[in-house]
Amino acid sequence: MILHTVNKPPSHAALSDCLAVMASDDLMLLIEDGVYCLHEVSGDSRVHVLTPDLEARGLWDRLPAELTAVDYAGFVGLCTRVDKIKTWA
Amino acid sequence: MNEKPVIQVDKEGFLRNFRSWTQTAAHELAAQDEITLNEQHWEIINLVREYYDDYQVSPPTRVLAKLVTEQLGPDKGRSIYLMQLFTARYAKYVSKIAGLPKPTGCD
Amino acid sequence: MQSRAPHGSLFGQEGLDAILMGSAFATCAVLMHGDGVYQLIRDQRSSGTSTRDYSVSYGALGDYGVETVFCVQEDLTERRLVVDDLVIPVTVIDRAAVASLLNDYNTILDF
Q1: With an 8 Å Cβ cutoff, are B55 and C59 in contact?
Q2: CATH number assigned to the domain comprising residue C26
Q3: Which domain holds residue C53?
Q4: What is the rounded distance in angstroms from the CA atom of residue B84 to the CA atom of residue C49?
Q5: Is residue C110 part of a domain?
Q6: Alpha carbon distance A86, A78 (integer Å)
């Protein structure tokens, strides 16, 4: 089980590259500019979003219901649930 | 015991942390430039601090003149008036005394 | 011309500084292009990150004599944004009009 972190907006290839290889039981965390991808992955319950980055970009009230918001402690928690981490940047 | 709290400034005399600004700090900063603050100074300082609060930028010369003209009238917006209060480089010194960063474009 | 999202890099802040400074010497306009429109989203709260919310500074552009900020309709639509989501009033143009807009100016600074 892999945690995929994405830190680029949808205009970059990071998100689509990640989605192309992500397994059904993997997890995704949108961080930094990756939080702009939230509409592209709405409905995908594997996806988590880092709250401070969401707030910094003025998107805190746009989080789709199926996605899970996590704080920094939650980020650490996700890391402990997976075998490894893959960064898409 | 009664030592004044030391204000932290950079090498040009601008406050390092604008949150540490107080009216006392303003008097001290002004004294360093041999300016004694009176009511006329304060209305400009307060205006500039409000502007910074709204827009997070320190007004440079031409913006300061425009701002003062709009808020306090054309007589006070004249550069001769501002120069008498804050020296020829008034935009820089107003921001400095108000505890704000140096305006973009000032040297 | 601002083409990058805020917070992820310092380009946006540097670009805004360049506009504020450049407006002293020439007639300037700003084009928030592509991901650049993200810089204008209202209510950015950067207390949880080490970055700064400089979007409010766009409100000062008028005082600096920068009268027009352009956004591209398609860029907004693709990012599910409308003009009411933005911190300042903008002039919305179609993507097809960008080429002639760029032609109207002598110099283009990219950030």
Answers
A1: yes
A2: 3.40.1260.10
A3: 11-103
A4: 43
A5: no
A6: 13
CATH superfamily of the A2-88 domain: DsrEFH-like (3.40.1260.10)
Asked if A53's CB is within 8 angstroms of C5's CB, the reply is: no
Amino acid in position C20? L
From B104's Cα to the closest Cα of chain C, the distance in A is 6
Task: Quick: pLDDT tens for C92-109.
Answer: 999 999 999 999 999 999
Per-residue pLDDT tens digits for C32-56: 999 999 999 999 998 888 888 899 9
Catalytic residue list of B? 106
pLDDT in tens, chain B (107 residues): 555 556 788 888 888 888 888 999 899 889 988 999 899 999 999 999 999 999 999 999 999 999 999 999 999 999 899 999 999 999 999 999 999 999 887 66
What domains appear along chain B, each with residue ranges and CATH number? 18-97 (1.10.10.370)
Check CB contact of C56 with chain B, cutoff 8 Å: yes
B67 CB within 8 Å of a chain C CB: yes
User: How far lies C38's CA from each of A48, B91, B102, C78, in Å?
Assistant: 21, 32, 27, 12
Nearest to A56 among C35, C49, C79 (CB): C49
Residue B64 and residue A36: Cα distance in Å, rounded? 37
Residues of C in contact with B57 (CB under 8 A): 20, 57, 60
Residues of chain A contacting C55 with CB distance shorter than 8 Å: 58
Specify the DSSP element, H or E, that contains B23. helix B23-32
Chains C and B touch, using 3 or more CB pairs below 8 Å: yes
Per the domain annotation, does C79 fall within a domain? yes
